Structure formats: C-alpha cells, structure tokens
Fold F-box protein.
Amino acid sequence: MPLKKILTANIEKQEEQKVSLLGLPESTLECILERLSPAEVCVMSEVCTYLRDRCRGDNLWKKHFKQTWGKVISDSAYREWQWHLAKRKRQDLFNEGILNGSLGSFQGVWPSLCLGSFLENSGQLSSSIVDDSIMALYMSIHSGKFWFPAQVFKNGGSILCDALLSYNYRTNTFTARHRHGGWQMISENVTWDRLRAPPIEICCPHFLHISDCLDDLKPGDHIEIQWRSCKEVAYNWWYAVIGHLESCDKHENQCRCQYSDILIVDFNNYPSNSLFRRTMLNRKVHGEQSNIRGGGFYGGIRKLQNEEEITRWKKLRRTHNLEPIG
C-alpha cells in the first residue's frame, strides 16, 4: 500500500477515535471543571448552553467559594446576601423602584443601629435564577460590589473590630468600613491575614456577648474579651490571658484561682506599668463591668479553644504603649 494511503488511513482512524468534551462521561467532565480556576470556569460557561448550565451549578461553585472566601465569609454574610435577593424580588413583584447605591440592611435598635451589609448597585440583580446561585455571590464579592460583614485586626493586631469589607481584585486586598457610626473608613489595602469571619454571631457591635465560659476559666486560658471606652460606642475584641491572683503562689497543685469569684485578666502586650496590663473582674457577673483603674467597660468573654486562633493573635499583635481607643 502506498505511504500516502497508509498515512491517510491512520489520520481517519484517529479522527474517528476522538471524543468531544461534551461526549465525556459526566463524572469525567465534572473532574475537569473542578480543576479549572473560577475565571476559566466563567470562560467555559460561554461555550454552549450545556456547559453554561454545568459551569454555573452550585456544587461546582461551593468548592471555589469555600477555597477562596471560606476564611472571611460567615453564615451571617450569606444570610445578608439572601436578604438582598429577597428585597430585590419583592421590588420586582410589586414593581417598586430599584434603589441603586447603598442598598443595605440595618441591625440593632436606635441609637445602637449599625449597617449589616450593602450592595453598591442593586440594579445588577435581576429575578433570574442565576442570582440565587453561589456563582452570583462569588462574583459579587470578587467584583467588590457586595460589602459583607467580617472582622479586622487593628493596632498592630492587638484588637479586633467588626467591619464591612469590599474586595479589590486588582490589588488582592480589601477596603474596610466600620459597621457603626455611619460610613467611617477604617483603612484601604487591608490584607488577607488581617481578616477573619466572626466566630460568634452578635446582632450589632454595640451588643454585649453573653459569656458561657466564666465558671470554667483558669490561669493560662487564652480569651477574647469585649471592651469599649464608653457606652455610646461599639465594642472591640481584645486578646488576653487568664492570670493568677496576687495571693497565689502559682504552684500547679496548690493553685485555687479557678474557684475564686475574682477573675484576673492579663493583657500581656502592654508594659507592666500600664493601667491596662491587668484587670480584675467578677466571674459571677455576666453583664458589663467597668475598669476602675483604666476606665472603660468590659463586656463578654470568649474562650479560645483553637490553637490556630491563639497563634494568630500572637503573630499579629505587637507590644505597644498605646491605651485602648473606643
């Protein structure tokens, strides 16, 4: 057989054996899509109707969402997103005018009222099923249009404050605004390592966290504690360690500090002569307590159970001589 015919026959055989992307088993196609980046999935969704539906599925985007935003987005942020969708659908249903700009939800009661989240342009939402997808939420966050609630480490990592965050994909950083006191800017170019999803849900930063660990706290335990300079401002969270009573010799087998009504809280990032280095609280009081020495008010306490959380506080905070600012 002539060489040309042999080559032609081989080419035709290879053509017959080719399998198109759409001809792959669903499990294989799913495996391929999972290995694509979010940007590549979006490109793939424009190929045809079949791939559009597959590339916009929640099962696929849940994995991308968790991988990208999982450490900064909480369930409360997702509920805020659902609130915006519900409001838009209600406006569509009753033919109400769409409010562009700062369309947001509010939490708390006056005067302790704070913004829960907002969309810069609610007109981008429509009543189509796509807006209910995880993909739509992902893209709204990535584009910076959806301002979501999270927490920001400030003052060299010595305190945590509640804020609203907007992502800047050009710089891979965030812009943060206070969730109270209007629209006061915290800072721009906030890096990922300064953010976290709120580990507990409090309706408004002005509200007291009800402690559930006071009876169990003992020397050496790491905690986060609410503090504010006056009752008119919101709480921030401070990192501290439970200390020993002055009368305790700190002997492990003889220490009885855990059974005392007096709770010693040490803020070791402050110098030893600072009024804020150490405070005494009554563990039987579950409400707000004043700081007699340094002023201000202490709120709820959250015990840190996770070594990763403790390590992060230690890594971010730095020794400074500043007194707390409300």
